[in-house]
Amino acid sequence: MTGWGMYRGRLQKDLALWVDKGLLADETASSLLREYDNRPASFSLGNVLMILAAILLAAAILLVVASNWDAIPRLVRLVFILALIWAVHLGAAAMLIRNAVAAANALLVIGTLSFGGAISLVGQMYHLSGDEQTVMYLWFAMAVVSAVLFRSAVVAGVAGFLSWASFAVYLGNSDWRWVTFDPWVAPVMALIVIALVRYTGAGRVRHLAYLMLLGWLAWLYTLHSGLWLALLYVVVGMAAFVLVSLPVPRLSELVRSAGAAPAFYALLLAVIGLFLLHVELDGGTWILALGIVTLGLSVLAIAMQGRDNGAVRYLAYTLFAVEMLYLASVTVGSILGTSGLFLCSGLFVAVVAWVVIRLERRFSIKTERVAQ
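and the corresponding structure tokens:
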């Protein structure tokens, strides 16, 4: 069953429950369900196929031009490239005026991809100085401008992939070393993509930006591996997680509009840091203390976001389970010791659960009083 169908099933059950309890009229529930059914689906196979067709057409155009590049006069080549880019963008504007969003996005994808090929071909034609990295920067900048001008979520996604491609080109050219200021461009691109996500409404594209930041931090650790950097990842990740979880007035609305992603990726950064700390302290005297801290942070994550954020909940469950198995394998040498470890852990979690339940009841009572 698709996500849409699963959510509709839950919504239908909730509406029926509210009707049975007298909280909602039957006609109102039916109207709400009809309104949801009339919404356009977030996934459209036709739109996806349109974008795939645009990618194939852009590749075909560039390959045809490249294969006959020497036979085409230089001026004709330049005019053709410029005409192609202008034509598809003007066509996209015309499609948007006619409310043909899928066709407009397809033309914008052709224009964006063609621009990258055009930069390379013109550079070869006129023997311009430069490198692949500069081409990627210009290509990404053009995608950003196009996404802003047309407020296109699809082109924002193309910009997200181009940021990854640019970072990959840098790593390949630099042999994974830190060279000048180019490494700072990757996190800057990620922040630009996040801004595009908020401006264009491309919700899924934000994952590309968050993964870019995590990938950049992981690469940074390969250059400066050490206990202090792993600990910094844990502290920064958990601080960001707590910050987005607390009901800060101005921040709450911003975080709520971003969905589950900020809390999940902040916790994921902390989990990466904890993993690196385990690698650094493997076999050391601090491993048991680190295990207790890891278990405590997983319980804290469940307490703060486990109810409403499924991604955080399952990540915290996994962290807790893996840590328990790890502690059992490296610190306990007997069955009695293992049972004692599990007994202490069970008592600890039970106490935390009792505190969380008490707090939830108190918060629910306060909410009911405010509602009254």
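(Above: one complete record from the training split.) The radius of gyration is 26 Å.
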